[in-house]
Amino acid sequence: MTTVEDDEDTVMLVRRDFRRRRRAQRLRRSRPLLVVVLVLAVAATCVYAVFFSSWLAARQVDVTGLSRVSRARVVAAARVPSGVPLARVDLGAVKARVAAIPAVRAVDVSRSWPHAIRIAVTERVPVAVLDRGNRLQALDRAGATFGHFRKRPRGLPMVESTARVHTDALAEAGKVAASLPRSVQRRVDFIHVATVDQIELRLKDGRSVVWGSAEQSAEKAEVLAVMLPKRHLQMIDVSVPARPTAR
């Protein structure tokens, strides 16, 4: 026989079970919203950490590839803003400022997390010395001038030109100097440049070599290397390497 107390207990159990199922349903319905809120909170924290906080700020500059240019000069030119979040440093502006250094041929700038800007420099390599009249400058294979010398360094030919010589002609002279094998380069005293296709080598023993333009310089250098041992040849013309002449 069921008593009143038993009925009341049953009702209470049913109510508790109902309330428990209602809470479970509400939790299931709110779970996607909770996930979205959590994801947004994590994303906001990441954005703040990367773009606005000092947690990932620029604190050092790493420079590689230097032999002639000083690290201090590169760092000064780069002007990397210390304390600015790494993600907000303008890498393009840093690259442009470093590339403006005359002795720098190429530069690559990247972020090195968590706190460094990395600058990889490729320097220009001198292949000749340009006499500017009042100063001596290095000339690279592309015809770019950079730096200066107090006196002419050993092992590099001197480029002679006039103030009216176009930069294209200097670029040709740089290509010629770069094409010379060491066995030939050490014999060259001067490279005289008049125009793009009027380049002449003056050897240390007093002989002259008509080179022409920088085209086919490798072939011209090979022909010249064969003719140089013939000491009686005072004027050698390799401007057309397939048909060299001499006297």
Q: Name the helix and strand elements from N-terminus to C-terminus, one letter apiece.
A: HEHHEEEEEEHHEEEHEE
Shape: elongated
- Gyration radius over CA: 37 Å
CATH C-level of the largest domain: Alpha Beta
Number of domains: 3
The beta-strand count equals: 12
Q: How many helical stretches?
A: 6
Flag low-confidence runs. none
Bin the strand percentage.
25-35%
- Identify the strand order in the major beta sheet: 6-5-4-7-8-9-10-11-12
- Overall residue-averaged pLDDT value: 85
**Helix proportion:** 25-40%
CATH topology of the largest domain: Rossmann fold
Rounded to the nearest angstrom, the distance between the terminal CA atoms is 139 Å
Strand-pairing-aware structural class: alpha/beta
Biggest sheet layout: 9 strands, mixed
Please describe what this structure looks like.
There is one protein chain. Helices cover 38% and strands 25% of the residues. It is an alpha/beta fold and 247 residues long. It has three domains: 1-52; 60-123, membrane protein fhac (Ubiquitin-like (UB roll)); 128-246, Rossmann fold (3-Layer(aba) Sandwich). The strands form two sheets. A nine-stranded mixed sheet has the order 6-5-4-7-8-9-10-11-12, with helices on one face. Strands 1-3-2 form a three-stranded mixed sheet. Helix 2 packs across helix 3 (91-99).
